[in-house]
Design brief:
The protein is an alpha+beta fold. It is built from nine helices and 18 strands.
Length: 333
């Protein structure tokens, strides 16, 4: 979990991912052929393929997390905010937030507001300031914050905390890049920006690369939470291989090829059909003349809450499967 913990403790609200790019570059710089940043802020690490006429393979995991941006500081010192990404206020209410400079506060609803009326306009952040002047010594308009990162170990190899979405996907890619001595294909490890607000970074980076194949790394929902809508994906059953979500129908030939790799290497996996939501997969698929694309996700309960929950077994399976894909000459699938 060490790689993952280093990522999740670095604040990276959408549009403010720079500090995380520094952390990731430090991890990868001695293990790839080149590292660049584009104008959007995407970090692109490249490993040259060893196969004859190597295909272009793009792996994408988004660095950004959901959070808040300061819009106004009231005379009484309370801070008004706007959401960045999908915030569940029922899950976030009365939780601790942390700003980019380390300042902490509490996200609270206005007095007398019940859970049924929770929305952005009813919430403020209390940093303990007695007035606006005092508050502005620590926080200013346009500063961003997010719910406090943490990770807890549960029973049965499960972990809970935040932000698992999508520091987990980035961690899978980093671990795979470190484990794979060689890549058969020209491989681009792309750590994208602003996925939570519209898959923006993956669009620009994919157009720059024009990949033949693409895999997006993210978290995905499960059907095993209490009262959850029926879904085949379960914690502990392995990597989730995307077939479809609301934004993409994956290339079935590529999906079947990855299935074959998983079966041959005895890596646990499960097929993911997500009825709502999407990832960077769709951006990659629709680049230029199109790419053969799918996604590999870590099954996660309670996504976008302060206690997202995963099985380390699934996280490790995603890494193992990715390493085997990196070794595979995509000309031969």
């Amino acid at each position: 979990m060490d790689v993952f913990k280093k990522l999740m403790t670095t604040l990276s609200v959408s549009g403010r991912e720079h500090e995380l790019t520094v952390v990731i570059e430090e991890m990868l710089k001695d293990h790839v052929d080149s590292i660049t940043r584009d104008n959007m802020g995407n970090l692109i690490a490249f490993k040259k393929g060893t196969a004859p006429n190597p295909k272009k393979l793009m792996l994408a995991g988004h660095m950004d997390e959901i959070g808040f941006i300061v819009t106004h500081i009231q005379d009484n010192g309370y801070i008004r905010i706007n959401t960045i990404g999908g915030i569940n206020f029922a899950a976030a209410a009365f939780g601790t937030v942390v700003f980019e400079n380390g300042t902490k506060g509490v996200l609270v609803p206005e007095a007398g507001v019940g859970a049924g009326d929770y929305n952005q306009s009813k919430f403020v952040i209390d940093i303990g300031a007695k007035d606006k002047k005092t508050a502005m010594t620590k926080v200013n308009v346009a500063d961003t914050c997010a719910m406090m990162p943490h990770v807890e170990r549960l029973m049965g190899g499960l972990y809970s905390g935040r932000p698992f979405d999508d520091k987990l996907g980035c961690a899978v890619m980093i671990r795979a890049a470190l484990a794979a001595e060689e890549c058969a294909n020209d491989t681009y490890f792309v750590f994208t920006v602003q996925e939570e607000v519209g898959c923006r970074g993956s669009k620009t980076s994919a157009y720059a690369i024009m990949p033949d194949y693409g895999i997006a790394y993210d978290v995905t929902g499960t059907g095993d939470a209490q009262g959850a809508k029926p879904m085949e994906v379960r914690l502990g059953n392995g990597a989730a291989l995307k077939v479809k979500d609301s934004s993409v129908i994956c290339d079935i030939g590529f999906v079947r090829a990855i299935e074959k790799i998983a079966k041959e290497k005895k890596i646990p996996y499960q097929l993911e059909i997500l009825e709502a939501g999407g990832t960077d997969t769709s951006s990659i698929q629709m680049t230029g003349k199109g790419a053969k694309a799918t996604g590999i996700s870590v099954p996660t309960r309670y996504i976008h809450s302060v206690n997202e929950t995963i099985s380390k077994k699934d996280y490790d399976a995603c890494v193992d499967l990715t390493v085997e894909i990196l070794k595979t000459d995509l000309n031969n699938i």
